[in-house]
Design goal:
Length: about 290
């Protein structure tokens, strides 16, 4: 069977993070016919049998252009994996409230339309903690994310902005953040990510590190419940790829941090088959 022509949306040339190792992985798995297209210049994708935003890093920095692209791909009838409806839903972390309403244990979150010191004080009272984390609802790679103790002033860049407020959960440093990876609805592998000493961000650019881990049964249960709820909310079947990020709350139970359904790092070097199941799940979505 011939491989479909695949367009992989990728970062702009100016994007600061090195993604060459991931590009090499996707070429190895999907073939040299896979074409990498700057997501900001993806005007006409009708020549491709499959389009995936797997490397569309940086889209939260240009939200209007991103949502215009989603609308355009939908109107062009492009075969997008994951589906456009899922990408649109997953772009804004307000989806966490929908999952919470569906019974999923999430990190407690207050969505603030215009952040100020009063809103921050009210959130601290509601959470019963002095230390909170704030982040934009449309963000990636910990952009615009801050950990604030009671004595810390609000960064000028976030004052008056729409922001999420969450309690700081010390287990991010004490144990780490779990990521479980699902391809075609099946668990592939799992890692644990830990921040550098004194930090709370697990991303590599901030000194975070990761290692393979056997996921606890409770983590698998939360991941699969989260994906089932997503399927109901978005009216979709099993997704080609999904990353489920979680950590333990102070009470010891796992809580969902994020679902990464757009452009997650998949850490395929930790998967038992080095990504073969991922490629099969992606290509099987072409029909």
């Amino acid at each position: 069977m011939m491989r479909p022509r695949i367009a992989i949306l990728c970062p702009t040339p100016e994007y600061e993070e090195d993604w060459s190792h991931i590009r090499a992985d996707y070429i190895r798995l999907l073939g040299t016919d896979a074409v990498f297209i700057d997501w900001t210049k993806a005007d006409d994708l009708t020549d491709y049998e499959l389009v995936t935003p797997l490397l569309a890093w940086g889209y939260p920095r240009d939200c209007d252009r991103w949502f215009d692209l989603l609308d355009r791909m939908e109107s062009q009838g492009a075969r997008v994996i994951n589906p456009v409806s899922v990408l649109r839903w997953n772009s804004d972390k307000s989806y966490l409230a929908e999952l919470e309403a569906a019974g999923i244990a999430t990190v407690p979150t207050i969505m603030c339309s215009t952040l100020d010191e009063t809103a921050l004080a009210q959130a601290r009272t509601a959470f019963g903690t002095d230390i909170v984390v704030i982040k934009p609802p449309i963000s990636g790679g910990a952009d615009g994310t801050f950990r604030l103790a009671r004595a810390d002033a609000l960064p000028p860049s976030v004052i008056g902005q729409r922001m999420m407020i969450q309690p700081y959960l010390p287990n991010i440093a004490a144990e780490g953040e779990y990521s479980l990876f699902y391809f075609g609805g099946n668990l592939s592998h799992s890692i644990i990510k830990r921040p550098a000493a004194g930090d709370f961000r697990v991303q590599e650019q901030f000194g975070g590190r990761e290692e393979a881990v056997e996921p606890p049964p409770a983590a698998i249960l939360l991941a699969e419940e989260s994906l089932k709820a997503t399927s109901v909310i978005t009216a979709t079947d099993a997704l080609a790829y999904a990353r489920v990020d979680m950590l333990r709350g102070s009470e010891g139970a796992f809580r969902l941090m994020e679902l990464e359904l757009i452009e997650p790092s998949l850490f395929l070097h930790f998967s038992p088959d080095k990504g073969a199941d991922f490629a099969q799940a992606l290509l099987s979505m072409h029909s």
